[in-house]
Amino acid sequence: xxxxxxxxxxxAIISDNSENYSEINMQNSRTYMTHENQMKxxxxxxxxxxxxxxxxxxxxxxxxxxxxxVNACIIHYxxxxxxxxxxxxxxxxxxxxxxxxxxxxSSSDFRMATKxxxxxxxxxxxxxxxxxxxxxxxNIGLNxxxxxxxxxxxxxxxxxxxxKDQNTKSVALYLENFDKKIYEKLRKMTKPVVVLNPGxxxxxxxxxxxxxxxxxxEELLDFSxxxxxxxxxxxxxxxxxxxxxxPVAMHAAEHEGLEIDKKGKGDITLAILSFHEPxxxxxxxxxxDNAVVCGTGNEFTMLHKNMIxxxxxxxxxxxxxxxxxxxxxxxWEKMRN
Length: 337
Fold this sequence. Notes:
By secondary structure, this protein is of the alpha/beta class.
């Protein structure tokens, strides 16, 4: 059922401001701009309806969707009334934003992240957009994004969908409320889940659920990235082409309690690299698969970051962020085993 939200083949849009949807990416989808009273005239089967209007028009649009056996609706206003109206019917309602970088579909005109392996679920549309913007700024790829505030599609159903989704390697989750149903679902997840909650009031529950806790937006994305790339191990070696950066990395690692193998035989290699001149692809290929890179330098840094991450090795801008991410990875490995 949730495929209709992420990969709709046909879409109807009911909006007071159709120009808002002129630049929405509806790749591979047949799109119809319509009025709720004209839904019956669309001969095509409709997978998804976006209802961007208010008041009685919303409820009339939902009624028409039910008559046409539409599977899914994204509604921006009057969600509570719409939920009551749709209760007991097959139609599913989301009050928020959805995109899928692999199918190219977005339900909103805000920027879509580059293609990646992290799926992000947020109980707040506003905070969700903040995280997506941070991912774009940091060139961190996302797979799917869904904000499900006040929807009849709950977090447990979304997590179950992402658990089965082949393009999702890790899940970033923002929770304002944490109930027993979410806890039980998280305990059953086999994919890594990173959870951020305001005030860290659920720290103990998050750990018991087998998830990694993030304390900031930065950590939410950093930890989700390393866990999407499947490095593993228990000890760390540090290598660098700039010895001036080694003490910073060593201090950060010791502060976080990482076990450092000073003989260079650790399971995970933390490579602190200074990119002040171009590096060949042959040199990039020498970086071990089970590595984490801290890349610093000038205009070449982003070029090399992309080259390295295309090989499945995460890159961070500072030693501290790389070290904290390795610590999160080791926590996940310990929980899993």
